[in-house]
Amino acid sequence: MLSLEKVFLTLGIESSCDDTSVALLAGPRRILSWKISSQIERHAAFGGVVPEYASRMHLEAILPLTQTVLEEAGVADPAKQIGLVAVTRGPGLMGSLLVGVMTAKAYAQAWNVPVLGVNHLEGHIYANVVDHEDLQFPFLCMVVSGGHTEIVLVRGCGEYEMLGATQDDAAGEAFDKVAKVLGLPYPGGPVIDRLAVAGDADAFSFPDMVHHLDGLNFSFSGLKTASINQVNRLRQKGETVPLEDFCASFQATVVKTLIVRLEQAVRLTGVTSVAISGGVAANSAFRRAVAEHEGWNPFLPSKMFCTDNAVMVAAAGYAAWQSGRRGGLGLAPDPALDFGEDEVVGE
Ligand code: KG4
Ligand code: ZN
């Protein structure tokens, strides 16, 4: 049995989008308890996240979740036992972030423990640190989610260099929007992933855009539009869309784009430790392509830590605290928080 007195405990809180999550972490990666309350089914009826509705659901969920996490972890006196409260302060939906940040500050004040804001992207990167004790700096991390497609060179905690980012849609957004046109439920990524298993990835060809952009940047809006146009053309001809083939071809184009950029990043930096994170990192074709790539030392977070969760936030907060970063009760949510404010010491 772990003696809670001897370890540093971090309470992590995540509420930036449509998942309310709370976690209690001992040291850098030992999970004592974590919970997630997903709103996906409630938003699915609207085909996407409804921000006002999301913040109301966060408000309902966050206190009972925290109580459950503390009870499950056996924390009877948080004021004495907890060392830090870490919370996602951005980027994300304003109302949703506000619920997490205000809750974190209230607990921090009530228990008289420090509070630290975490960048959601930094959280996704730290999902890999939780799952891989052997992950050493420097490593490359590709964050691919509903809101992000970025390649980051991680030199250390707080030392990040953004190598490339999407100039329009995120990869997950492209999955979701193409799924919507195909009549598939939200979120579309996991559904496309499942259908693609039985499909022929060469059945359709789509523009991949990788060679039309400078540096390591991404663009997915062209692929999204081309895919939607193909669906409409087939329907106008009275043909049904072969879902499996279409999904397999679309998914293969996204994966190819991501892999080409990672290959370029490895060449550019000489760093061969390649981590992935974010919701799209749960994609089976992408995981396979990274895991089996020749010459790379791959790090894949378990699927449950790819999508939004508080474990990664607690881990990022703990690492930041250990590296000397400090915050305070002046902490405020920032829906457009750049990966470059506060925590970035990189270039
Ligand atoms: O990281 P996340 O939970 O939230 C954001 O920060 O955006 O990522 C959600 C995104 C959605 O766009 C969803 O469709 C996508 O990740 N996603 C997937 C898969 N699982 C989730 N995309 C492709 N394949 C999957 N298996
Ligand atoms: Zn996320």
Brief write-up:
This protein has 347 residues and is of the alpha/beta class.
General description of the model:
With 347 residues, the chain is of the alpha/beta class. The protein has helices spanning 40-44, 51-73, 78-81, 94-111, 120-131, 171-181, 188-196, 221-236, 243-269, 284-291, 310-322, and strands spanning 9-14, 19-26, 30-38, 82-90, 115-119, 139-144, 149-156, 159-165, 273-277, 297-299. A five-stranded mixed beta sheet has the order 3-2-1-4-5, with helices on both faces. A five-stranded mixed beta sheet has the order 8-7-6-9-10, sandwiched between helices. Helix 5 packs across helix 11 and helix 6 packs parallel to helix 8. The chain starts with 8 loop residues before the first strand and ends in a 25-residue tail after the last helix. Its EC number is 2.3.1.234. Fe cation binds at residues 120, 124, 308.
| Number of separate strands | 10
Radius of gyration: 20 Å
Element string (H = helix, E = strand): EEEHHHEHEHEEEHHHHEHEH
Strand order of the largest sheet: 3-2-1-4-5
Bound molecules: 5'-O-[(R)-(carboxyoxy)(hydroxy)phosphoryl]adenosine, zinc ion
Ends distance: 44 Å
Percent helix, as a range, is: 40-55%
Structural class: alpha/beta
Strand fraction: 15-25%
Which whole number gives the mean pLDDT?
A: 93
Query: Would you identify the regions where 5 or more consecutive residues have pLDDT less than 50?
Result: none
Query: How many strands, which pairing sense, and closed or not: the largest β-sheet?
Result: 5 strands, mixed
> Which of globular, elongated, flat, extended, rod-shaped describes the shape?
globular
SS element count, helices: 11
